[in-house]
Amino acid sequence: MTELTATATPANRPALSGRVKAALVLFVLFALMPPVASALDDPFYVLIGTRIIAYAIAAMALDLILGYGAMVSFGHAAYLGFGTYAVAILSRHGINDLFLQIVFAMGISAVFAFVTGAISLRTRGVYFIMITLAFGQMAFFFFISLSAYGGDDGVALAQRSTVLGMDLLETNFGLYYVSLALLIGLFFLCHRIVGSRFGRVLTGVRENPTRMEAIGFSPFRYQLTAFIISGCITGVAGVILANQAQFVSPAFMSWHKSGELIVMVVLGGVGTLAGPIAGAVAALMLEEWLGHFSDNWKLYFGIFLVLMVLFSPHGITGVLRKMGLVRGQE
Amino acid sequence: MTSLTVTGLNKSFGALKVTDDVSLSVEPGEFHAIIGPNGAGKTTLISQLSGQLRSDSGAVRLGDHDVSRLSMPERVRLGLARSFQITSVLPGFTALENVALAVQARDGSSYRFFGRVSDESPLNGEAMTALREAGLDRRAHVLAKSLSHGEHRRLELAIALATRPKVLLLDEPLAGVGGEDAEAFIENLRKLKGRFTMVLIEHDMDAVFALADRVSVLVYGRIIATGAPEEIRNDPEVRAAYLGEEEGEAA
Amino acid sequence: MMNLFVLQLLNGVQLGVLLFLIAAGLTLVFGIMDVINLAHGVLYMVGAYLIATFAAATGSFWWGLLLTLPAAVVVGLVVEFVVMRRLYARSHLDQVLATFGLVMIANEAVKMIWGTSPLSVPMPEIFSGSVPLMGPLKYPVYRIVIIAAGLAVALGLFVMVNYTRVGMLLRAGATNRDTVSALGVDINRLFAIVFTLGAVLACLAGAMVAPILSVDTGMGESVLILTFVVVVIGGIGSIKGAFLGALLVATVDTIGGVFGPIWLRSFLDPSAAGQMGRVLAPMLVYILMAVILFAKPAGLFGRRA
């Protein structure tokens, strides 16, 4: 999986501060969106905004392993699903606290990531992509046959989560800002990880695994750790998504969702953390926008994807780099 | 000082026997060179010693440790380091970062998720020392992929030094380096002599005879002679099998 | 009990044969070109829609099949020429994105052309009956025909791969791509042939199964993932691996789905067994994959991990 070396950017450049600036600009825009939307008398956008934030968290988490670890996971929607079902399962048992739900979501995600990652990471390239896809599908089928929670049809949530006993999330505004706070917190967590000792090892393995072994690192355990961290963060995104939709179903974990997450990461810039947040915004806005024109928006989205890949010599990141939106080497 | 003892090492690829019952005893602190014609199996032997390649049979001992069954990372952590013939660095990292990572590998945990590693001055300090010893300190902040070929060879050496080896395996460190550059490089290696045990594989005979305490000659996977540089130079069998051939090629 | 087992075993073999037809092309494309193609399931769906259209237009399954095959060749060549050809030298990530885009395009295009309601294809008259198997047990002739046709294609592929020049190149290519270019073979043409062959096999699978399934837009998706499992289990690039993997996956899927709950009932109470069986059955093939990969990361017959 060294193929990503050429397109991804190094982790430890001072350029990171530029990325933090880009992220801060995004966060300010996110924070300003609800007042503007309500001034325009269109509060529906706040709910769409929450959905975008949830996917931004998931895309950023995927970037942590895809961009910095060159692991193209095609099963990341599973963790989104674990997050949503963590809310549904705990709420069925009368536990509505957001933090407990997040801990539970991370627990399920960590176990699944540990077991499937330990198997998938023994392979490379095409194998890795297909195996993560298959394990994602396994989780999908598990919840489809889980009749206690509605199986295929899913289950509606009676209420949103509470924060320390307060119903902070009952209003769409409250949910939006709590989600935004989570996004900002998790961004800085990922940012610190990438610049840390661990992050440097992860990036080193991406660049040249043999060299890393020759100086005494066993790549597997670091890759697996990153895989688990990424899964846990994606689980948090699922918790937000369940509250946003007030509904939980296996549809959140179909392999198409995994594909969309990859699209968001690449659209925003592989290995940049802030990029995938922007990528989530762009992809979901494009969906909404195309959806206004046609029921067959997926057709146009698909054409857009194929053209982007075919007519930019270095993929989508190449276009963005040419436009100066992504820094990094050829 | 640690010795390196190799007994009865074998490796075959299909029907081709690449390493044939190789035994070798490198004394603590010795600078031992292995020479041999192209295709003699020198790089294969280094890969087996470093643990990158699994041996079919035989044993490798590092001092009192039998490391035969250990993986490459495990051997490195015990002090058996190697450099690569074909430059193998982290292209997107600066020279300093490449070396700092090697320091990090043996110094403390890499399961630290929060502190900025680029701010860790002990790490950077040790990395700079290794770069200086390899003669590359002035290029510390240049990305590895922007370095010249000669500089890459020095970076290889600096990385290997930073692992603080007890035994260092050098796989053609001078490959593709010529002229004054090569002389300066040989001087760098001479300064390291005696600090740890070294095994050098090299084509450059000037380097070998200038540096080595003892020389082994590898032909078709077998060691046909071991001795002081002068003995090897005058050994008729060696001349026939190897040195003569070189002269023949040159002519 | 025995009857049920034989019945399910036959169903398993029938599914396995179909999976093999799809997986054979996929494993060659992966193995020889090192290209990941998420749109392979789409070709299976397209095969089913093509025969539905042609059979309806001509009023005959056989004419439909006869027209579907050349149409499949055209589809394969066009997709190869327009998209796949430009992806060979790209990163796996680019390949994932572009072929994911193809899946979206194809699914929506099929919906726009044929509508969202499922189509059906009439069973060919002479194969519409059943044959007695053992005791009171009967089995549909058509399913037996699918098994026979699939095995015949498998045999043909086996002969082609092992005894023809193209097959020799395929085997060489799966082991080492550089060798093939070194032999002076036009690699672009070889790739086009391989991809189109894979496309035709997938379309053929879709066409054969159309009379016993409802033809709808989702049909390519479930099969795609199962095919991935087959290819991974069998080892990328190995036709033999794809064949054994397909039969293994299909029998575990069908027999496990029926006998899993029965087996669970022997030590759990019926309702718990039923529930657990329903949850576990669809996961069986993935657990099988996990176990095999844990023992052999490159698959049963894989050369490269």
Quick summary of this structure?
The complex is a heterotrimer of chains A (about 325), B (about 250) and C (about 300). By secondary structure, chain A is mainly alpha-helical.
What do you see in this structure?
The complex is a heterotrimer of chains A (330), B (251) and C (305). By secondary structure, chain A is mainly α. Chain A has 13 helices and two strands, in the order αααααβααααβαααα. The longest helix of chain A has 27 residues, at 219-245. By secondary structure, chain B is α/β, with parallel strands linked by helices. Chain B has two domains: 1-79 and 165-251, 3-Layer(aba) Sandwich (Rossmann fold), CATH 3.40.50.300; 91-163, no CATH class. Chain B is 39% helix and 24% strand. In chain B, the strands form two sheets. In chain B, strands 6-7-8-3-9-10 form a six-stranded mixed sheet, with helices on both faces. In chain B, strands 2-1-4-5 form a four-stranded antiparallel sheet, covered by helices on one side. In chain B, helix 4 crosses helix 5 (149-162). Chain B starts with a strand and ends with a helix. Chain C has 305 residues and is mostly helical. Chain C has a domain at 11-216. Chain C has helices at 2-33, 40-58, 61-82, 92-114, 141-163, 165-175, 177-182, 187-209, 219-234, 239-265, 270-280, 284-295, and strands at 130-132, 138-140. Chain C has a two-stranded antiparallel ribbon. In chain C, a hairpin with a 5-residue loop joins strand 1 (130-132) and strand 2. Chain C is globular, with a radius of gyration of 20 Å. The chains are: A mainly alpha (330), B alpha/beta (251), C mainly alpha (305). The interface between A and B is medium-sized, with 30 and 39 residues.
Separation of termini of chain C?
Answer: 41 Å
The percent range for strand residues of chain A is under 5%
The number of distinct structural domains of chain A comes to 1
- Give helix and strand order of chain C, one letter per element, not per position: HHHHEEHHHHHHHH
Uncertain segments of chain C are none
Helix content of chain A: over 70%
- Report the biggest beta sheet of chain A as strand number plus sense, adding barrel if it closes: 2 strands, antiparallel
Biggest β-sheet: strands ordered side by side in the sheet of chain C: 1-2
What is the first-to-last residue Cα distance of chain A?
A: 17 Å
Helix content of chain C: over 70%
Overall, the morphology of chain A is: globular
Residue windows where pLDDT falls under 50 for at least 5 positions of chain A: 1-15, 326-330
